[in-house]
Amino acid sequence: MCFDTDSTPPIFDQPICASTATPLQLVSADDTHFETFLAQPSVPSGAGIVILPDMRGLSNFYEQLAIRLAEQGHAALAIDYFGRTAGTGPRQQDFPFLQHIMQVTAKTIGEDIAAAIEYLRTLGGGNCHSVMALGFCFGGRQAFLASAPRFNLAGAIGFYGALSFYPNGAPGPLQRVGKLRAPILGIFGGADTGIPSSDVTAFESALTAAHVEHEIITYPGAPHSFFDIKYREHASACVDAWQRVLTFISAHATPQN
Questions:
Q1: Is residue 81 part of a domain?
Q2: Of 34, 76, 36, which Cα lies nearest the Cα of 59?
Q3: pLDDT category of residue 68 using cuts at 50, 70 and 90
Q4: pLDDT band, residue 44 (cuts 50/70/90)
Q5: Burial of 14 (0-12, 13-18, 19+ CB in 10 A)
């Protein structure tokens, strides 16, 4: 379903610059304060990445991922979804995230993503010329949906994001392809029992028909949430996926003047 509390992103390359990182609260359109984690590079690439977590919300996995991105020159801001229902205080490992994820809505998620995008666009006097979304599981689905024009993103990257209707009837990226515009990188596991291969194939075909620039990658034998240092048997898939993410960011980032 999502990463464990002890999961760690399996990043295999060396930093190209120093980075700094800090927790940060942002304010959404409805005046909700929500937690984020900001990592900044000493030598900015011009790209800013909004990291969209899985159903557990902001966790150490995404904080570490933000730092790894900053070490590659990309400012990264990982957000939490639960400011409205859980506040901004510390949380224990047994935090009942399922109770809270059921209370988020497309509207509130969109407002929080928009606040994060706006913050990155003004960061450092406008160092982030190109803002993109990078999400995992639930966040991967939201990253695909954030390809919509209203977010004005330079790109959207989703790891194993559910593509079709949720049990509550909410339509997914597959049903909303006609409203997507920003380039998409979709990464999936071939052994993911929660995302049918038929959905992935249909999503790729629909993106092609809608003339949305995209790259869809499926790693045979890889399960859901395979991008985790614990999955040593899928290390090659992790390395390849990470390199594709960095390549996508570089390809869609506007160079610094």
A1: yes
A2: 36
A3: very high
A4: very high
A5: exposed
Over residues 99-111, the mean pLDDT reads 94
Residue 79 lies in a domain: yes
Determine the Cα angle at 257 with ends 39 and 250, to 5°. 55
Q: Is residue 220 part of a domain?
A: yes
Per-residue burial over 55-86, b = 16 or more CB atoms within 10 Å of its CB, e = otherwise: bbbbbebbbbbbbbbbbbbbbbbbbbbbbbeb
Instruction: Report the number of distinct structural domains present in the chain.
Output: 1
Where residue 120 sits, what CATH number does that domain have?
Answer: 3.40.50.1820
Are 52 and 134 in contact by the 8 Å Cβ rule? The answer is yes
3-state secondary structure of 170: coil
pLDDT of residue 255: 62
Q: Is 148:179 a contact under the CB 8 Å cutoff?
A: yes
Question: Considering only CA atoms, which of 80, 87, 67 is closest in space to residue 109?
Answer: 80
Q: Which two tokens stand for residue 143?
A: 């990253």
How would you classify the pairing of strands 47-52 and 33-41?
unpaired
Mean pLDDT of the chain: 93
Q: What is the pLDDT of residue 174?
A: 96
Q: How far is CA 225 from CA 126, 166, 194, 222, in A?
A: 34, 18, 11, 8
Range of the domain at 153: 19-252
Question: Is residue 237 one of the residues assigned to a domain?
Answer: yes
Q: The pTM is what? A: 0.96
